[in-house]
């Protein structure tokens, strides 16, 4: 390799391998473990993945690109109200498309499967596919490029566009911990998607649509501040701390609160079904008595 020698640090490569595991392997293992332990259908996990694929990759992201010349983020160095409008736009559309997508998928495919374990599986599929498609596949490429750099097979000087040189600079000069945080953030995001899915499924199952609104608001609140933290000193760590706090709230809701709500909902539904059966039995009995009286 002629010219300046670039080397990716060993710690960067180790952290990248960990992030590859967290973003690519962990979601799959989590889905398998949960479906086996809680008897959740694997198809529900796939429906969660399909939700992200359709409503983010196929619908929202192309729409953002089409509207890019017009939406507030088209200007550079946004500040003040411009930055606020830009952040609102991205946060609102993310919440609208993802939570709206969850609602549509539930109504189409989970009409009679609105249970706690199905809601969790839906969230694992949604967050897991997001993790794999955004970070997991990227880190496969990153690790291959890191190996090529360290083996000395790459010469950025031969790239007239400068894109290769920028990629090499990014991989060699970025602090190693940033490569680890990418994987940690994906795990937190899966926890958040599980919480959002539980809100949506419970809201639809109980017919308390305020819970669907809570999912939308929580998703919006998660994303809205992120544009403000990107350009400040220590912004990455502030962002991670904020996401971690939101994920802890989501975890508490998912593990401590939602199971009791779903259990109570199931008991009420069972009572309603039992009352319906009793009412039908009474009606049928009365009908038989009426018919017997007429015959006599």
What does this structure look like?
With 296 residues, the chain is mainly alpha-helical. It has one domain. The protein is 81% helix and 0% strand. The protein is built from 9 helices and no strands. It has helices at 10-38, 42-66, 80-109, 116-151, 163-173, 176-206, 210-223, 226-229, 235-295. Helix 3 (80-109) packs across helix 6 (176-206), helix 3 (80-109) packs antiparallel against helix 7 and helix 6 (176-206) runs parallel beside helix 9. The chain is elongated, with a radius of gyration of 25 Å. The chain starts with 9 loop residues before the first helix and ends with a helix.
Radius of gyration: 25 Å
Beta-strand share of residues: under 5%
Poorly predicted runs are none
Number of helices: 9
Rounded to the nearest angstrom, the distance between the terminal CA atoms is 106 Å
Strand and helix order: HHHHHHHHH
How many separate domains? 1
The largest sheet, given as strand count, sense and whether it forms a barrel, is: none
Provide the structure class: mainly alpha
What's the helix and strand layout?
Blueprint: H1 10-38, H2 42-66, H3 80-109, H4 116-151, H5 163-173, H6 176-206, H7 210-223, H8 226-229, H9 235-295
Concise account of the structure shown:
The chain is an all-alpha fold and 296 residues long.
Structural key phrases:
mainly alpha; single chain; 81% helix
